[in-house]
Amino acid sequence: MIIVMRKGAGDKELNPVMEKIKQAGLDVHLSRGKEVIIIGVIGDKTRLDPDELQAMPGVEKIMHVTVPYKRASRDFHPENTRLKIGPLDLGGDQVSVIAGPCAVETREQILEAARGVKASGASALRGGAFKPRSNPYSFQGLGQAGLEYLAEARAETGLPVVTELMSERDLDLVARYADVIQIGARNMQNFILLKEAGKSGKPILLKRGMSATLEEFLLAAEYILAQGNDRLILCERGIRTFEEYTRNTLALSIIPVIKKVSHLPIIADPSHGTGRADLVVPMSRAAVAVGADGLIVEVHPRPEKALVDGPQTLNFSQFEGLMKECRPIAEVLGRKM
Ligand code: PEP
Ligand code: MN
Questions:
Q1: What is the per-residue pLDDT across 231-254, written as a single tens digit (0 to 9) for each?
Q2: In a domain, 77, yes or no
Q3: Probe residue for ligand 1, chosen from 237, 267, 299 as the CB with the greatest number of ligand atoms within 8 Å
Q4: For residues 291 and 234, is the Cβ–Cβ distance under 8 A?
């Protein structure tokens, strides 16, 4: 249920309404917009009498929210959530690009990658120190050393660092180094991890599970929001379909749908979404065209030597081309890139 307050209503009208909801044992989510104040009610709403609420001073109307994700829904929070971390700016006019290798491999590799992507206009550096690999004998990431190299790359370039957390076991460690904690597709429904990461208060990039529906995706986001952490970025990274010419099927139609039903920023990952370097630039153009708030792209100084995900990784000149081709599309839509 949401309660829309009358224009001009202040704390004098708001507080008694909030009190009434809390007394009934329910949770409130307050959204103070430029125009109106909206109170989102979370919990068993049969404990409240809507007529009684409607009659309270300052109450404009009561509406019922039928979607199960409440804090993630635009009904609860009509304005976009804006997330700014240094040059990374999501949920406003800017289309921000997070770029870097799939995995941190060496100190030199990540420093070189950071300098290269910054030169072309990236707003954040990506790189995994803990890698979720299908094969247990494949390179698993450098762990803490990788995080230290990422921190060094941030200190030199000023780019905030996005890096994956695979287990709550490593939360304190990863939170110490990361500016944004990535929760990967394979962990989108690891509910314990979502709760713990949410509690850390760190900004979180939540990737869509490879077989998750829109509702499951937003309910996963709800786990993080329910911890009082609204510094959250969603990411479409492709889903599993019957098709085999691409690694995954980048489901770009989810972007305008999410923009409609949720206030959270959403970015696209054309690298994992296609698995093919030759498709990364065209799908980036498409993602910007459908209204993505940003991109996350795999870039390596020498993709042919990359330890992880080389076939879908761009070199610096291809990344430069991506930025050049996407920028005018962003501008047509009234955005900056
Ligand atoms: C990654 O970003 O390197 C990654 C493993 O992504 P995903 O979880 O989307 O597969
Ligand atoms: Mn990867």
A1: 999 999 999 999 999 999 999 999
A2: no
A3: 237
A4: no
